[in-house]
Amino acid sequence: MATVILDAEVITMDAHTGSTPVPRSIRIEDGVITEIARQVSVSDADTVLNGQGRLVCPGFVNAHTHSWEYLAKGRYDNLPLELWMLYSYPILAQRPLPPELVGLRSRLFAVESVKSGVTTLVDDVLETPGQDFDQLDAVFDAYDEVGVRANISGHVINRPFIETLPYVADWLPEDIVREVRGQAVPTAEEYLAFSTEAFRRYAGRAGGRLRYMVAPSGPQRCTDDLLAGATELAVRHGAECHVHVLETKTQAVTGREFYGTTLVEHMRRIGALSPNTTLAHGVWTTDSDIDTLAEFEVCVSHNPVSNLKLGSGIAPWRRYHDAGVTLGLGSDGCSSSDTPRLHDVIKAAALLHKVTEPDPASWPTVEEVLRAATSGGARTAQLQADVGTLEAGKQADLLIYDLETLAFTPRNRAELQLVYSENGSSLRQVLVAGRVVVDEGRVITVDEDALLAQVRVLLPGIQREQDRVERRNAVFHETFDRMYRECAAQDVGVHRWSGEPVKP
């Protein structure tokens, strides 16, 4: 039995019509779009959806996020990244999260994501003090149940955290330094073995809808052999290698202090760049870095809301486009942006870069922004053959909006209103692989009310544990603040708090 959407306004994001809505009908069989045209075949056995008064577009790809942070949503403010990480990614006193809570956290995150139009998650999952297969299984099981598409990582840091930042190891008390350095960290061999088993374990999961990816946390947080090995492993498996690079000015200083060059150039030297590599953030890249990324066909996931909240800076949107670097859009985690909703990110991306250049010709176009949210995000995730556009042969991951709402009234240019006026309130159905997972604002694959009731019961204990861990890690705060201010005062050759290059 097939599903047919008749007579809708459709944004295909393909090479022919792009972001311009065109009248189309869509036929879906076995989760795949088999026809998309003005008229398609219909039989009596088909499920027919009336598309009149509806806008259909590809499902959004959240190209960088952390479900790990969901339980810390709305907990922190006015902390730059390096200080915020003290509490969201604690160095000391963290206890392993039981798989049952990992599963609940992941279901809540997936539900909020799909309800806002995200059909694909690039979920950079970190568990502290370390990740095991019981925890990773819980994420895969949760996403399988909700019905979302996802790349799910084994995120790894294999250097003592105080050695991933400049200056702090020399400034902290000796007993704290000894305690941190005494913590076990995985070797490159251990992580690559874990990832090799993960690729085997999750191959074909949910019909290929769920995939494992490697995620070295960052070049300054991982040893060179792990970075190079993860890159090779990703290429071998046709998977994404997801790495945080140059998110903050501190990281720009770190590259110079640790390697005498930029972090991108260091990755090039050690063989850690490939077309399978996606850099999360890429705010403080130099012009030379951007040329290198284009040369190696590396993608960048742009996270404007998180970068704004953490004061990290403004990514060079137009420079990336001019160089031919593919951009996706990410929400980042729910503790750094406080939402997994990509509508917020799409509007922020469309608006933010209008204030970084005086020439309107350089400002983001709606076509560029929607492409980053769909086909660009799919490319960053190594899923471009499956999703990101509405075309025959692609997976039927799509969104159906009601055009008879205030957001689209008066109806002028629906693609502009999708970016600037819509916040997800007009979204009526969400399909992933042809399956309806959201209908009239409700996720129909899981019991959302039961999940909310469950987390309400557990929340007091969760928050007591968060309070305990925060008190323990506050010992680093003064030193990390000093380090942040020292780095902020330095000249790194780019000025990305305004988005403009440093003037000679």
Average residue-wise pLDDT: 96
Instruction: State the end-to-end CA separation.
Output: 65 Å
The main β sheet shows up as: 9 strands, mixed
Number of strands: 19
Specify the structural class: alpha/beta
CATH superfamily of the largest domain: Metal-dependent hydrolases
- What is the CATH class designation of the largest domain? Alpha Beta
What is the helix tally? 17
CATH topology (fold) name of the largest domain: TIM Barrel
Shape category: globular
Q: Tell me the radius of gyration.
A: 22 Å
CATH architecture term of the largest domain: Alpha-Beta Barrel
Strand content: 15-25%
Q: Give the count of structural domains.
A: 2
The low-pLDDT segments are none
Task: Explain what the structure shows.
The termini are far apart. The model has no long low-confidence stretch (mean pLDDT 96). The chain is an alpha/beta fold and 504 residues long. 38% of the residues lie in helices and 19% in strands. A hairpin with a 4-residue loop joins strand 18 and strand 19. The chain has 2 domains: 3-58 and 392-443, Urease, subunit C, domain 1 (Roll), CATH 2.30.40; 60-380, Metal-dependent hydrolases (TIM Barrel, Alpha-Beta Barrel), CATH 3.20.20.140. The strands form 4 sheets. Strands 1, 2, 3, 4, 5, 14, 15, 16 and 17 form a 9-stranded mixed β-sheet that branches. A 4-stranded parallel β-sheet has the order 6-7-8-9.
